[in-house]
Amino acid sequence: MIEPMDFLLWVRGTAFDVSLGIFVIGVVVRFFEIFSLGRAANFAEPRGTEFGPGMRTILTRNIPEAGTFKRQPLTVIAGYVFHIGLLISLFFFVPHIQLFAATFGFGWPGLPTPIVDAAAVLGIAGLLAVLWNRLTNPVMKLLSDKEDYLVWVLTFLPLLTGYLAYHRMVDPYPLILGLHILSIEFFLILFPFTKLMHTFTLFLARWYNGAMHGRRGVES
Amino acid sequence: MTDNSSTLGESLRRQGVTRRGFLKFCTATASMLALPAGMAPAVAAALEKARRPSVIWLSFQECTGCTESLTRSHAPTVENLLFDYISLDYHHTLQAASGAAAEAAREKAMHDNAGKYLLVVDGSIPLGHPGYSTIAGISNLQMLQETAAGAAAVIAVGTCAAFGGLPKAAPNPTGAVSVSDIITDKPIINVSGCPPIPSVITGVLAHYLTFDTLPELDQYGRPMAFFGTSIHDRCYRRPFYDKGLFAETFDDEGARKGWCLYKLGCKGPMAYNACATMKWNQGTSWPVESGHGCLGCSEPSFWDAGGFYKALSIPTGDISRTVGIAGAAGLAIGAAAVGLNRAAKSRAKQQHGTVTVDDLEKTS
């Protein structure tokens, strides 16, 4: 008989080790892939530097472009709301910080639970809004493929189960805590092989964009 | 040995318990069992008339901590008298008889009260080898099956009897199992805890005497009245958890101020028990109040649920090691892939031939 407690022990034990292992191996190999592809040598005479504009673009791309905001305000607003809600819940909930501290050997101060709770609600609401947008906006619908929906589910489940676990809305608690950890394990396993990789690669992409434009002496 | 003719009311009066004391106990019991206040007189009337139930207590792979806990429940109270009142016909730690006489007492009680006696078990049952734990040459498994056959109900006292407990902890050398793993055709009530709170067992007995039924049970067969809410939800330190105020060590300022013990490994969020409300030692204190996190001792597999001093959110394995090994493996695989890629590229470069317009015209 699989009991909630056995299930919790399994997701906290073997399953976590396996999914974390796949995550780390996958991410490292993906980086090797990206770097080893390299770039073709550019023989044109550079008109500017690469490093400065590259680093600057990493920061400036945090601000949405005015035209995009005008055309797709919901994408921009809901996108920001869900990312901020997700990041606050992930990095400032004390039990999560304990996990990072156990992994990396250092932690940081957490936020009071009512604030994290509000952030999680924002995250869930933001994710529902982006899904609604994806399903109702004809352009978004056309652009979406299976992976987009898969990634949405992978992101939504940890937030939802985390919210249910924190509010103890499912009995017994070991079951919902176990489901929350399991949802994270699915997230970790598929992370390197889906567009979830953007968590890391966005910095490379932004740098590359900025550097390319910088070399040509134009604004990025 | 068994005088089943006197009622509980008579027995208590004989022992000098006043009517007022008895009614106070009944009211407390009714509230403990989460019954409406109006039920207190019904509890009193039923207990007054209740007959001495025969109880057989079997101890298997256990440490006697459960018996210690129950016999040392604050003395001498009505709870204790109620506990004395039951006809404890066999308990090899407490009984005076030994050897063949002791076993004879068990067999007599089983025979005289067939189908009516209560069976209390503490300790787990080894299935690895019958010789791991025997009483009078009878294996624990055989004695449990024999004695449970004629029991009205079985009460598994302590986490070992309820879930396997410490003997079942990995790697479970004796193949220990719980009572409910073996007995499936009798009502079983699990009173888990390492040890369980004394008042919980008297509460369960009072419920059985009053209503002749077992109380409402949770999915682990534990009485809802005592195991219905978690330690975390009833903890007086909970506001500190919500405010984000935690003790980081056992002797820092947070510990002295009584802040939340989550970071020090408190398993309160996953533990269901009544410690936070009923407390221990006559309501004096309980583990969290004395400054130590909950171990979650009332839950199955609590011995294997990670370090006692590691937060509940931390996986049980060595995650730094996993990250290190996986990182190294990733580097090796990535480097190998890059090497293969480079080799393929340079081979392609070597085989690269120049094609002229004339060559193309020749082939077409």
The largest beta-sheet of chain B arranges its strands as 2-1-3-7-9
Model regions low in confidence, pLDDT < 50 over at least 5 residues of chain A = none
Question: Which pair has the most extensive contact?
Answer: A-B, 44 and 45 residues
Tell me the name of the CATH homologous superfamily of the largest domain in chain B. Answer: NADH:ubiquinone oxidoreductase-like, 20kDa subunit
Number of helices of chain A: 11
* CATH architecture descriptor name of the largest domain in chain B: 3-Layer(aba) Sandwich
CATH topology of chain A: Fumarate Reductase Cytochrome B subunit
Largest sheet of chain A: none
Strand fraction of chain A equals: under 5%
Strand count of chain A? 0
Describe, in plain words, how this protein is organized in 3D:
The complex is a heterodimer of chains A (220) and B (364). Chain A is an all-alpha fold and 220 residues long. Chain A contains 11 helices and no strands. In chain A, helix 1 runs parallel beside helix 2 (14-37), helix 3 crosses helix 11 (198-215) and helix 9 runs antiparallel to helix 10. The longest helix of chain A has 24 residues, at 14-37. Chain A is globular and about 65 Å long. Chain A starts with a helix and ends in a 5-residue tail after the last helix. In chain A, 30% of the residues are buried. Chain B is of the alpha/beta class and 364 residues long. Chain B has 2 domains: 8-227, Rossmann fold, CATH 3.40.50.700; 231-304, Cytochrome-c3 Hydrogenase, Chain A, domain 2 (Irregular), CATH 4.10.480.10. A 5-stranded parallel β-sheet of chain B has the order 2-1-3-7-9. In chain B, strands 4-8 form a two-stranded antiparallel ribbon. A two-stranded antiparallel ribbon of chain B has the order 5-6. In chain B, helix 2 packs across helix 3 (40-49), helix 3 packs across helix 11 (198-211) and helix 5 (78-85) packs across helix 11. Chain B is elongated, with a radius of gyration of 30 Å. Chain B starts with 7 loop residues before the first helix and ends with a helix. The model of chain B has no long low-confidence stretch (mean pLDDT 87). The interface between A and B is large, with 44 and 45 residues.
